[in-house]
# Entry
Amino acid sequence: MAAASGPGGTASYTADSECRSIASYTAIFTDRRITMAEPARLFTDLSPAAQTNFAELFEQAQAAAIDRSLRDLPGSFNRKTVKGRDYWYWQVRDLQGVNRQIYLGPDDERLARLIQLHGEGRSKASSDLGALAAACASLGCMTVIHQHFAVINRMAEYGFFRAGGVLIGTHAFIAMAGMLGVRWSSGWRTADVDVAHAGKNVSLALAENARADMHDAITSLEMGLLPQQSLAAGPGATYITARKDIRVDLLTAAGRKGDVYLYEPLNVSLQPLKFMEFSLEHTTQTVLLSGEQAVLVNIPSPMRYALHKLVIMGEREESFRTKIVKDAGQVAALAEYGMLRSPAALKTAAEDLMQRGPGWRSRATEGLRHVAAYHPEIAQSLGEVLKAAAPARGRKAPSTAAAKAPARR
# Structure
């Protein structure tokens, strides 16, 4: 669903000028399909055995989550359509007679089959998730460090993902790898090649109608995570340890005000973030791994996540160089995957972004400049995808002048 204009109001440039900027990153088209100059460089395919084991782990984790959600809660399955996509919920009536809904996931063949099996009393839930998780890790599926997994798993135990919460940031990027059947290239791993290190931040985002006690979930970990103070709402939307080795950010889509505010249904403060709504629409599910443990999480659609990162990069200052380098790597890896393996999904996400107004388009153009500094060929091809997705009246022939990428230092 396209918005009339992007955050930040109307700028002085025109759609034509935006498209001329984007068009400076050109790609080769063959029969209307993008052709990459070289084979994939930023991801490698998992083995068939790894992909098969991960698919089984995901199905078992989803079945286990459904069993936990529905056990001793009489109710019924309910399907809702949100912005053109169907989602499943378990609807129950509480003691006050109020209908409550537990989020189960987006509609797909796998979830529909699990719902049918549950209705027939033939659940596929398994108690051997640990063995499956360990097998996936040994076969090359990407994992996260235990400390970060503990935070995310505790949020899951307290109903964060059942309430519709979404894991974002680098942990979501790592989780996408198994879902897509790939392993990202170096740049997001520690010295231990079997463990992907996402940095010290754990980032999560919530829809406005989510309900769960997130403050208790975080503080019950006994990891010394304390909320940072916010002048606007008391305890802030960021939790951090005294050693500053773990940080948890709670985010939501920005409304008219950008201040941190206390959201009572969650018993936690949230930090609104511009453009976040793009990643919170059309979410999907996958499994996050750590050793012999696995947890079912909601994550953004990979192509929407990539383009959201691109827009956010257009907001970053050069002083955030480390974040820019990391974001550029993630955008490039996902864009490369999208152009080689999932062009339709990339095209759909690009069309949505480019129709949201000049504020979105100008930031996407600026984000492309950052990507071009590290991955010029991919930035060139992605720029052509965005140009083709722009509103028809703003399209012009690709410019022959190369856009100047930020200097690498």
About this structure: DSSP finds 13 helices and 16 strands in the chain. Residues 15-43+302-394 form one domain.
